Amino acid sequence: MTRKKCVGVLALQGAFQEHIDFLERAALENCYNVTVIPVRTKKELHLCDSLVIPGGESTTMSLIAQRTNFFDDLYTFVHSSQKSVWGTCAGLIFISDELENQNELIKTLHLLHARVKRNAFGRQAQSFTKVCDFSEFIPECTDFPATFIRAPVIDKILDSETVKPLYTIPNNDEEDVIVAAQQGSNVLVTSFHPELADDDIRFHEWFLKKFVVDF
Ligand SMILES: NC(=O)CC[C@H](N)C(=O)O
């Protein structure tokens, strides 16, 4: 029996409970030897092999981490090659190296070697769900409902040796934008919210298998 792995979901702010629910379902339905916990403290973080940073408001997330003296522990954790990290939406922003816009208030974790553009598709009213064919990296997943809410995109990859795009979509009349990417073997980022896909846990199943169970 492999050692039980622990996946943390950063629970300072945002849609962390939805990730916890989907991860727990994915672990149960696939008999993965994994526990899932909310993470708000250094003690909880130190239990984790992997950390999911959810959607929400990245500036708020960063400020709470700084004001609770948690930022440095988060920085150390995400920069460990022994840990895996998945940033969704605000989580993608929070771990990015550079921000193309709205960077005045936020202190990021400088993990993802990319420049990220916040609110790339516009405001809340421009949020949308797009059925995506992820089968190039998630076998047979040809129709995943990806929900974009005031979503960021990867505007520029700063290290093409380590950061590989996984999926791009058109952005109005501009060139296609990167909305999912992987850095090395242990960092995943998505602009969209798989935790908000009605009852569809395929993305979380893939994350657990690739970035936790097999990592
Ligand atoms: N759904 C989200 O996580 C939105 C992210 C938010 N627009 C930010 O800049 O942090």
TrEMBL record:
L-glutamine binds at G56, E57, S58, R118, I149, R150. It is an enzyme of class 3 (hydrolase). Pfam families: SNO. PANTHER family: PYRIDOXAL 5'-PHOSPHATE SYNTHASE SUBUNIT SNO (PTHR31559), PYRIDOXAL 5'-PHOSPHATE SYNTHASE SUBUNIT SNO1-RELATED (PTHR31559:SF0). Keywords: Glutamine amidotransferase, Hydrolase, Lyase. GO terms for molecular function: glutaminase activity; lyase activity. This is glutaminase. The gene is NCAS0H03640. Its EC number is 3.5.1.2. Belongs to the glutaminase PdxT/SNO family. The lineage of its organism: Eukaryota, Fungi, Dikarya, Ascomycota, Saccharomycotina. It catalyses: L-glutamine + H2O = L-glutamate + NH4(+). The active site is at C89 (nucleophile), H193 (charge relay system), E195 (charge relay system). PROSITE patterns: GATASE_TYPE_1, PDXT_SNO_1, PDXT_SNO_2. InterPro entries: Class_I_gatase-like, PdxT/SNO, PdxT/SNO_CS. SUPFAM superfamilies: Class I glutamine amidotransferase-like. One of its GO terms (biological process) is pyridoxine metabolic process. The keyword Amino-acid biosynthesis does not apply. GO terms for cellular component: cytosol; glutaminase complex.
